[in-house]
Design brief:
The chain is an alpha+beta fold. The protein has eight helices and 20 strands.
Length: 538
């Protein structure tokens, strides 16, 4: 007797819908956990001036391998390596680009790329960028800025806790950066700059006042901050003095990078007004700059553009002198004549940013408009005496994904009697797999600018329609989280995942952490390990 067997696997219709359904958003959300259906979690954006910092959050731990191009372009491709077990079956995914970065068109993830997983960002114009690992192994930090000749963003290494950073490459300037990392968050407004009264503006004459703009789930929050203070006690004293006019003010510590960006883009003046006294140009340097500009003008007349650019670049490497505005204007003109429109636009914008009332401001504005760019808006967000200040009201939102797949596997076995081949074969039809897989990952979040709460549920249910088969239930994450930003408090209770501080993997329990200083955080974790997501009890 011989037999024949043929099998066919029929995966039928998978309806995947509702990926990332933002209704309302939070200023800040919890760290994502490892889930089986999505690799990308979300993206956070912080904008200060022209520098945008994107934090792309993953549901798995990743290692940054490299990125290309290395400096600028209309595309950015970041190669990563998954570090979590079971994260090998990666697919193609996408995140909705933040609304606050108009130049960013799409954020795609190719988990099935033959060369390895790749995160790709596509822009509508040339952008400068740099990529670095995030503080959490499940995140990448991408810094973006428009084209230009200056530094991309103030680096954290260049702004350590010292009163002054090393010289910047653009113009050789040194900005007087305060040593403290504490700020007073004066007020917060959604989707529009904070509007202040005349009385509120009158008390902000001292210190560095700047605006940060954060973007998450299509909701933009504008935060007005006052800094920078060496100790929390000094910042709290300033908050108490301003409490009558800013009832929702609170104290928070910031990064050295935000401090540097806040100084550069502070409200009420351009960067040239914060030059350290010893950075003022000497008479010899002023004379040298004037001579170099004269030589550059002569080279321009002779159409020796490369030599003129070199001479003007040497001028901008000196401290600010009366010749600096002219050097910037000529450098933009030279870039324009060489057909380098992006560089020309950057030089004109730099002129208007540093010397908005300069002698050639109108002329530079006209040239910038002719290149298709408008004059940059001044760094001013104190609008109208309407008297409205963020009231700290809570906002709620829901986001998540739901998917459903039906699997069916049928087989047919034919038995033939070799001694009597004329007889019809015995046919046995069987159903080997008949399942409906339903999965969901939903987050309900709410909070104000100071406090946030989040409830997350992620799991799956497999209904087995075969006779004698059993259904399968699994819970990937089910937790409640609360965070208090001013107190530096963070708690989470329920099924969660952690891959640091001696805890590796999923567990049922509680986590609590509190920041006692800028460099010290105390964390306590307790609970029971969960070996499989199908484990529904301790």
């Amino acid at each position: 007797m011989k037999n024949g067997r043929k099998s066919r696997l029929v995966p039928i219709a998978a309806g995947l819908f509702g990926a990332a359904l933002p209704l309302l958003a939070l200023p800040q959300a919890a760290r994502a956990q490892t889930v089986s259906d999505r690799v990308l979690s979300d993206v956070d954006v912080q904008n200060i001036g022209q520098c945008s910092t994107l934090t792309v959050n993953f549901n798995i731990r990743v290692q940054l391998l490299g990125f290309f191009p290395t400096e600028s372009g209309r595309e950015l491709h970041v190669r990563v390596r998954p570090l979590d077990p079971g994260a090998t079956s990666l697919r193609r995914e996408a995140l909705r680009p933040p609304t606050s970065i108009n130049e960013l068109r799409t954020i795609d993830f190719e988990g099935d790329n033959p060369a390895g997983p790749v995160l790709s960002l596509f822009f509508t114009q040339d952008m400068r960028f740099e990529v670095s690992p995030g503080r959490d192994p499940r995140s990448l930090v991408i810094r973006l800025a428009p084209p230009g000749s200056g530094p991309l963003c103030e680096s954290e290494n260049a702004t350590a806790a010292t009163p002054r950073p090393p010289p910047q490459s653009e113009g050789g300037r040194q900005l007087a950066v305060p040593a403290g990392l504490y700020v007073v968050n004066l007020a917060t407004a959604a989707d529009a700059p904070v509007e202040l009264t005349e009385a509120q503006r009158a008390v902000l004459d001292e210190g560095v006042v700047y605006e940060t703009l954060s973007d998450r789930d299509a909701r933009v929050l504008h935060r007005l901050r006052l800094g920078f203070f060496p100790t929390r006690a000094e910042a709290e004293a300033a908050r108490d003095r301003l409490a009558g006019l800013f009832p929702e003010a609170f104290v928070i510590s910031v990064s050295a990078e935000e401090r540097a960006q806040g100084v550069v883009n502070r409200i009420g003046g351009g960067p040239e007004t914060v030059l350290a006294p010893e950075d003022a140009a000497s008479p010899e340097q002023a004379s040298e700059a004037a001579t170099l500009v004269t030589q550059a003008e002569q080279a321009l007349t002779e159409e020796s553009y490369d030599r003129a650019i070199q001479l003007l670049t040497n001028v901008l490497q000196l401290p600010t002198t009366p010749s600096t505005p002219r050097a910037l204007e000529l450098l933009g003109l030279l870039r324009e004549r060489k057909g380098q429109e992006a560089q020309a636009r950057a030089e004109y914008e730099e002129y208007l940013r540093r010397f908005p009332s300069g002698e050639a401001a109108d002329r530079v504005s006209q040239r910038l408009a002719a290149l298709g760019g408008g004059a940059p808006a001044p760094a001013q967000v104190l609008r109208g005496p309407s008297g409205t200040v963020a009231d700290g009201a809570w906002a709620w939102g829901v986001r998540g994904s739901v998917s459903q797949f039906y699997f069916r596997d049928e087989s047919q076995t034919r038995f033939v009697d070799a001694a009597r081949p004329d007889r019809d074969p015995d046919i046995d039809n069987s159903v080997n797999l008949n399942q409906l897989l339903s999965a969901a990952d939903v987050t309900i979040s709410g909070g104000s600018d100071q406090r946030q709460i989040e409830l997350r549920a992620s799991g799956a249910y497999t209904a087995n329609f075969r006779s004698g088969g059993s259904d399968i239930e699994s819970i990937t994450a089910l937790y409640l989280e609360y965070a208090d930003t001013p107190l530096g408090l963070h708690t989470r209770i329920g099924r969660q995942t952690r891959n640091s501080a001696g805890v590796l993997g999923r567990f049922d329990g509680a986590l609590a952490s509190v920041a006692v200083s800028d460099k010290i955080e105390i964390t306590a974790v307790g609970g029971f390990p969960v070996l499989r997501s199908r484990q529904l009890s301790c």
